[in-house]
């Protein structure tokens, strides 16, 4: 009888924990830094603020870093924490190579209004921002880049459009695959956010370059290796020795390899 009661208590605790996980997923996946609308950014290079209306009228905010006579635009979807106030510090990695850089803040991040509530909504938001930037840049000069949580939406965007290049930094195979690796006790059907990167890269016609740190402590680098079977023969996977999950844009080898990728025809 005691064992039965103990089992029932544990089962109840498990069900309650899974219920919290289901209804609080956004708080466990996204860690935004909110900024007041009057906030002033301070960067040591040219930039402008860009506001894009989403499908439902919510205003999405981003920063556009510019250079003279740009070769194209890097359309950048950042990780799950912070805002463009901190992510803007990566700008020189791309502008030093002669590219403009646009960094979008997802809804609820920085000065972007609203809150993320579903996967489709996030996809619609990044598509709206991409379409807006196409007013100023030729699509074959658009390079879509995503870091960490941003890699799923970046891959979706590349699959649904025709950019010149897709760059993924520390991607997951899918969010369900990552959850199985980190939290095997969590049933996959509870995930509202699938972020099935592998399905999107299969449909991407543009060249793909994947970068992953061998010492990534958040998204295991085997995620990128699993994506290999879904890539085209000329797509690349570059593993960076000594690189953890954060700070890849400052990695000297990443910068060297990135320059070669962008210089490739």
N-to-C CA distance:
71 Å
Query: How many β-strands, per DSSP?
Result: 10
The shape is globular
Report the C-alpha radius of gyration, rounded: 19 Å
Describe the structure.
This protein is of the alpha/beta class and 265 residues long. The chain contains 10 helices and 10 strands. The chain has an 8-stranded mixed sheet, sandwiched between helices. The radius of gyration is 19 Å and the shape is globular. The N and C termini lie far apart (71 Å).
Brief rundown of the structure:
With 265 residues, the chain is of the alpha/beta class. It has helices at 2-23, 25-29, 84-87, 91-95, 119-133, 151-160, 175-182, 197-202, 222-227, 252-263; strands at residues 31-32, 47-53, 59-65, 73-77, 81-82, 100-104, 142-147, 165-169, 208-213, 236-240.
Key traits:
single chain; 265 residues; alpha/beta; 8-stranded mixed β-sheet; two-stranded parallel sheet; 10 helices; 10 strands; 19% strand
Q: How are the elements arranged and paired?
A:
Elements: H1 2-23, H2 25-29, E1 31-32, E2 47-53, E3 59-65, E4 73-77, E5 81-82, H3 84-87, H4 91-95, E6 100-104, H5 119-133, E7 142-147, H6 151-160, E8 165-169, H7 175-182, H8 197-202, E9 208-213, H9 222-227, E10 236-240, H10 252-263
Parallel strand pairs: 1-5, 4-6, 4-7, 7-8, 8-9, 9-10
Antiparallel strand pairs: 2-3, 3-6
Helix pairs in contact: 5-6
């Amino acid at each position: 009888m005691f064992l039965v009661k103990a089992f029932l208590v544990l089962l109840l605790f498990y069900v309650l924990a899974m219920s919290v996980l289901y209804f609080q997923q956004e708080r466990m996946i996204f860690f935004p830094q909110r900024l007041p609308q009057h906030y002033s950014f301070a960067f040591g290079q040219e930039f402008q603020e860009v506001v894009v209306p989403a499908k439902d009228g919510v205003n999405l905010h981003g920063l556009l870093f510019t250079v003279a006579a740009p070769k194209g635009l890097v359309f950048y979807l950042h990780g799950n924490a912070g805002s463009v106030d901190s992510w803007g510090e990566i700008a020189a990695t791309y502008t030093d190579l002669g590219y403009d850089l646009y960094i979008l803040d997802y809804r609820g991040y920085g000065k972007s209004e609203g809150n993320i509530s579903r996967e489709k909504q996030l996809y619609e938001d990044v598509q709206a921002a991409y379409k807006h930037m196409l007013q100023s840049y030729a699509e074959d000069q658009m390079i879509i880049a995503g870091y960490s949580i941003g890699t799923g939406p970046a891959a979706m965007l590349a699959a649904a459009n025709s950019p010149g290049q897709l760059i993924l930094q520390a991607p997951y195979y899918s969010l369900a695959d990552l959850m199985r690796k980190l939290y095997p006790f969590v049933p996959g059907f509870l995930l509202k956010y699938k972020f099935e990167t592998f399905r999107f890269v299969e449909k991407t016609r543009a060249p793909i370059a994947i970068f992953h740190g061998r010492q990534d402590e958040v998204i295991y680098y085997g995620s990128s290796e699993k994506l290999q079977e879904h890539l085209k023969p000329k797509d690349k996977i570059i593993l960076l020795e000594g690189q953890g999950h954060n700070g890849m844009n400052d990695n000297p080898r990443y910068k060297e390899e990135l320059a070669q990728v962008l210089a490739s025809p």
